[in-house]
Amino acid sequence: MSQENSVTLYRPVGPKELALIEQAEFRAFPPRLPEQPIFYPVLNEAYATKIARDWNAKASGSGHVTRFKVNADYLARYRVETVGAREHQEYWIPAEDLDEFNRNIVGPIEVIASFGKTA
What we know:
29% helix
């Protein structure tokens, strides 16, 4: 998969999810929990930052913004969902599709911002 045919996405995560991403050598997101039927990567850094800073950090002590690329042809099967304001856009990936989603990640998952406790 080439980077030219990829879409950059962002995912706000808390410390537990970040630890699981690290265990996967920054190549995959962990399976969803039973109460998490949808994996929702977001389309812009500002929205991911708001979630990581205002929700994840407050709920679990730290929040992190990850950035990664996904094969555009694979991603085309999903709709962009707007959840509130125009900039609040995300994909809704069913939990059962996450393994295939992970196989379509191009390159590593990067941590580009952290809020709250980082240790």
